[in-house]
Write a structure and sequence with these properties.
The chain contains no helices and 8 strands. With 96 residues, the chain is mainly β. The strands form 4 sheets. A two-stranded antiparallel sheet has the order 1-8.
C-alpha cells in the first residue's frame, strides 16, 4: 500500500517510536525503518491497557516490494505487531 517512508523516531498513532533503522539508508537525515524494527513501549487509548512494557513490539507489516538491507521498508500505512498504525512518515518520500 502506498505511503510515506517511516524513519527512526517517528511515532505510531499511540506514541510508540520506531527505533534501530538501517543506518546506511536515510531519509531527511534519519535511518529508515524496516520490517521487524523495534517500537518503544507506549500507551494506547482507553481500549487497551498498555502496549507493552516488557514485550517486544515491532513493525509487523511493511511494503514487500521496496527493500533496504534485504528487508521491506516501512511506510505510514503499515502497522506494528500490537496492531497500531504507523500513521505518518517523512512527507518528502513516498513508496507505492
Amino acid at each position: 500500500m502506498p505511503g510515506q517512508v517511516v524513519t527512526e523516531g517517528i511515532p505510531n498513532v499511540c506514541g510508540g517510536q520506531a527505533t534501530k533503522g538501517i543506518p546506511t539508508v536515510r531519509v531527511g537525515g534519519a535511518p529508515i525503518m524496516v520490517s521487524g524494527s523495534p517500537v518503544t513501549p507506549h500507551r494506547p487509548p482507553i481500549i487497551k491497557p498498555l502496549c507493552l512494557t516488557g514485550a517486544a513490539v515491532t513493525v509487523a507489516r511493511s511494503n514487500s516490494t521496496v527493500r533496504a538491507g534485504g528487508l521491506p521498508i516501512v511506510v505510514s500505512t503499515d502497522a506494528d505487531s500490537c496492531g497500531h498504525s504507523r500513521g505518518t512518515g517523512n512527507p518528502t518520500v513516498r513508496i507505492g
